[in-house]
Amino acid sequence: MLERHILMKDLNKHNPNVLRQFQERKGWKWFTNNIIDANEYLVKEFYANIAHIRQGTKVTKVWNLKICFDSCAVNKYVVFEEVEAVQYLEKLAMGDAARPWLAEILAIPGSTPAWVTVGVPIVRVTLNFEAKGWKTFVCSRIEPCLNENMLILPRAALVASIMVGYPINISAIMSTNIILAIQKGERSYLYPNFLTKYFKDQGVEPKHYDTEVKAKKPFS
Fold first, then answer.
1. Under a CB-based contact definition with an 8 Å cutoff, are residues 192 and 3 in contact?
2. Interatomic CA distance for residues 140 and 146, integer angstroms
3. Which of 61, 66, 74, 165 yields a CA-CA distance of 20 to 30 A from 87?
4. What are the start-end ranges of the H helices in the chain?
5. Same domain for 11 and 66?
6. Cα 53 from Cα 152, distance rounded (Å)
7. Distance between CA atoms of residues 136 and 219, nearest Å
8. 213 and 154 assigned to the same domain
9. Which residues contact 97 (CB under 8 A, 6 or more apart)?
10. From the CB of residue 83, how many other CB atoms can be counted at a distance below 10 Å?
């Protein structure tokens, strides 16, 4: 599943806190850079090899090199902070019980969204300006998704946790999602653009039959 470009200029005019947090959170400006085309064969090789590694291991071979994809390795590469995301994980674990808290953070001020009720989907039109901005970021780069209108509960917990300033270990989220994609047998591989750059910068050699795919356009 291809990542999307982020247009910060479109977010900043409505979301001053988005710009502030990107400036204050170590390494997050990395996501505002242009992302390179995804190497389709390289990423497929990576995911195919992950399917056969020992449980709990986050090291696999990608063509000519052994690649570590745990949170420590990725944080070091992108220069993210290695933080304990306790508060975010607690909200994530609450599931539907977190809906009232999510409404306080994400909903348009003065409104009581229908999705406070369990089973009602969280839709973009009910979100405040800042929540829409962070939803764009999360759904573009951290947990890429196809549906720009809906916000599933786990992503809502992440968006709200970012907004209130909870420590977020982005690399831990990405590393976990990679493993989950394999365990669920998903065919739409996550983070192909990021992984392509990561592998290239680690020294993975290109192949003559490589096929590159461009990142998607930003959410409008």
1. yes
2. 9
3. 74
4. 8-12, 16-24, 40-50, 71-78, 86-94, 99-106, 129-137, 153-163, 170-183, 192-202
5. no
6. 30
7. 7
8. no
9. none
10. 18
Position 70 scores a pLDDT of: 92
What is the number of other CB atoms lying within 10 angstroms of the CB of residue 65?
A: 12
Distance CA 17, CA 113 (A): 23
User: Is the same domain home to 43 and 29?
Assistant: no
Tell me the per-residue pLDDT of 33-88, one tens digit each, with 9 for 90 and over. Answer: 768 889 988 999 999 998 888 888 899 989 889 999 999 999 999 888 889 999 99
Cα–Cα distance, 101 to 97 (Å, whole number): 8
Domain membership of residue 141 (yes or no) is yes
Same domain, 120 and 17: yes
Number of domains in the chain: 2
- Based on the number of CB atoms within 10 Å of its own CB, is 30 exposed (0-12), middle (13-18) or buried (19 or more)? middle
The type of residue at 171 is: S
Q: Say yes or no: 18 and 96 in one domain.
A: yes
> Angle 5-43-157 (CA atoms, 0-180°, nearest 5)?
50
Do residues 17 and 115 share a domain? yes
Q: Please check whether residue 102 is in contact with residue 160, taking contact to mean a CB–CB distance below 8 angstroms.
A: yes
Give the domain range for residue 148. Answer: 6-33+84-168
